[in-house]
Automatic annotation (TrEMBL):
Protein name stated in the entry: Uncharacterized protein
Organism: Blautia stercoris
Amino acid sequence: MKEKDKVLQALCDGLGENYKLMEIDLELCIYRNFGNRFEVEVSGVHTAKQNKKATIYLWCMDATGAHGYVIKKVGEVPRNKIGKTVEELYEYSENLISQGYDCYEKVQAYLKELVKKEQIKKEEDNGAR
């Protein structure tokens, strides 16, 4: 086993039994399925370099469960903060579900609405100058 494989496996094991290694987009990543149509991918840490930071993607699955879409990305996560960051994303997913956004189609509509609101606010802020 290569050193980077050992390091990744140790990192995955240290996160707990809910995590496993999975190849995603041709990269060996750490993966966790929340069991609520949301999943996370921990990317960028398949290396022996201990200071390499992770990028964590929150995926939301469509109504069929066959396809997933990234709805949130958290970059530059130190290795010792991966578990905490994933738990925050789990809470975020549960919050979306509690508001009725329980599949990709609904989350997509919600996120588009947020983007519209942000654009309107920026335009208002720019007009106030």
